[in-house]
Amino acid sequence: MIETRALTHTYQPGSPFESVAVYDITLTISDGEFVAFVGATGSGKTTLIQHFNGLLKPTSGWVKIDGINPHEKDAPKGRMRSLRQSVGMVFQYPEHQLFEETVAKDVAFGPRNLGLSELECGARVREAMEKVGLPFETFSERSPFELSGGQMRRAAVAGVLAMRPRALILDEPTAGLDPGGRNDFLNLCAELNRDGVTIALVSHTMEDVARLARRVFVLKKGALARTGAPAELFADTDGLRALGLEPPDMSRLRSILNARGMDIPADALTPEAMAETLARMLNPAYKPEARP
Amino acid sequence: MNGVVIGQYIPGETRVHLLDPRTKLGMTFAYVALVFCARGVVGLVMAIVYIAGISIAADIPLGRMLKGLKSLTILIAMTAVMNLFFTRTGSPILKLGPVIVTDSGVKTAVYFAFRLVFLVMGTTMLTLSTSPIALTDGLESLMRPLEKIRFPSHELAMMMSIALRFIPTLMEETDKIMKAQASRGADFETGTLIKRAKSLVPLLAPLFISAFRRAADLALAMESRCYQGGAGRTRLNELRFGRDDALAGLVMAVMVAVTLVERFVFTAWTIRL
After folding, report:
1. Which chain B residues contact residue A84 at CB under 8 A?
2. Burial of B110 (C-beta count, 10 Å sphere; 0-12/13-18/19+)
3. Which residues of A touch B190 (CB under 8 A)?
4. Whole-structure pTM value
5. Interface of B with A in 158-197 (CB under 8 A)
6. Residue A32 exposed, middle or buried by CB count within 10 Å (0-12, 13-18, 19+)
7. Under a CB-based contact definition with an 8 Å cutoff, are residues A206 and A246 in contact?
8. pLDDT at A292 over 60
9. How large is the average pLDDT for residues A71-87?
């Protein structure tokens, strides 16, 4: 569980370049949840999430992970290591952090830092690589720098997954991926979440947020502007625009159709759900196809 | 990481800030010559007038200039000690076994210490009141005559500007990669020296890769905008001498002249240091 109370972070306090990046944020993310952070560029999303594994220290207020405040003086020794193990962080363009000679060695960097045995490291590397879709036999001995962009990103994410985090923070993980790569990646997130991993996703793509998140935090100029389920949040298309966000396609379609007299419920957020709803409304004889 | 300050430059709009960088470079060279030529009390006064004048005109407190001295304290102290104990001319005033201190040794020690302090303070004035970019522009313009002997002045200045431009970018990148590796359990702070040096590999390797990638991107971007070196290139901001530049040059010339006159003409009349 990740909790913050009145968390405020100021960059370069006391200098002429002082700037408040996030202000008075109070929130709780429960175990196993899938939440999303959205907001215009510069709204403080990245700064906020970097508090979740102790990379940044709040200027005031506090953050607790599983009930422990990592910055408290009497926090248990080695807390940072265990914190970074339990909360994994995937940065923007994570492929920029690759450095080893082979993919397997790079993925093993995290587990090695945890002090695990060679055997355990090997098992985790294999598992993480298979999970992200880089078969161990094919990729383990290749240099990470001869992979394609999408494969590099997967290798970098495998490096985080190999630490077996119980919560995963992802900062715009699909930026720059092609549609196929993006779909694969989002499916991976959904799958991890089904396995019980808490996920916090920072994204500019409202379609992704609508599809996956169960709760959305909207940031504006460093403050928490709104919190809610995607259906209720995206239903208010004008309010969303006022926060500097573009509503997902299906919410826009819904508001256009409802303005012309239809009555589409707010939870038809994905193209699939929308198609299903429309088919039902327009054709009383419609029977949903059986899906595997 | 917004607003990273490079060097010591204090942004401002004073007449000193707005002087042509070439004027300021010239003044600084003249000032250095002045400090080296000064042999009497008048030269010393000239140096003080220069520092105080610029400090007031550029609205930069003297304390900021003294900051530049901190790293040089050891050098200055060493020079003073050397002069004090190893000068053999003049009449001895203290004898302790093999150690002899002479009156001219004391004089030289004090004189050299002051000379170094003045030197550093005066030249710090230049970097405090001139942005690094303006400085490179000025240097390029001053080095241009050397192109006759195939000295690559434009290329050198361009390299300096690019390096300056990328310092904040690389700092940001370093910060990001450090955080990413720390998230994977990397530890940059504890352990033996060898362990800490080794722990830098996961930081430096990605940093070099991204620096090379940026360099390649920049080269392409410059070429696609038809950059082909300095020949025939016009400037967005032409350097121009103005009235203030003439005034500053005149004052400087007078100050140097007075110092030279004191040293070579009125040697007998002034208080020698």
Report:
1. 182-185
2. middle
3. none
4. 0.76
5. 173, 176-177, 179-187
6. middle
7. yes
8. no
9. 82
Residues in contact with B13: Cβ distance below 8 Å, sequence separation at least 6, in sequence order: none
Q: Which H helix or E strand runs over A104?
A: helix A103-113
Contact between chains at A84 and B182 (C-beta distance less than 8 A): yes
Per-residue confidence band for A224, with pLDDT thresholds at 50, 70 and 90: very high
Phi, psi dihedrals of residue A40, rounded to the nearest 5°: -65, 165
Range of A50-54, A263-267, B153-157, B226-230 with top mean pLDDT: A50-54
pLDDT tier at A52, thresholds 50, 70, 90: very high
Tell if the CB–CB gap between B209 and A145 is shorter than 8 Å: yes
Q: What is the pLDDT of residues B189-210, one digit of tens each?
A: 777 888 888 888 999 999 999 9
CB contact under 8 A, A160 and B184: yes
Report whether A145 contacts A103 (CB < 8 A). no
Chain A interface includes B64 (CB < 8 A): no
Does domain A2-247 bear CATH number 3.40.50.300? yes
Sign for the pseudo-dihedral over CA of B107, B112, B115, B120: negative
Interface of B with A in 205-234 (CB under 8 A): 205-206, 209-210
Interchain CB distance below 8 Å, A97 and B210: no
Q: Cα torsion for B197, B198, B202, B207, to the nearest 10°?
A: 40
Please list every residue in chain B whose beta carbon sits closer than 8 Å to the beta carbon of residue A88.
Answer: 183
Please identify every stretch of chain B with a pLDDT value under 70, giving residue numbers as ranges.
1-8, 68, 267-273
Contact (CB<8Å) B2/A50: no
The mean pLDDT value for A24-35 works out to 95
Q: Which chain A residues have a beta carbon less than 8 Å from that of B182?
A: 55, 84
The answer to whether the CB atoms of A96 and B3 lie below 8 A apart is no
The residues of chain A that CATH labels 3.40.50.300 are 2-247
Shortest CA distance to B116 belongs to which of B194, B38, B187, B201? B38
The yes/no answer to whether this complex scores an ipTM above 0.90 is no
Residue boundaries of the structural domains of chain B: 7-130+240-273
**Closest residue in A to B210 (Cα–Cα):** A96
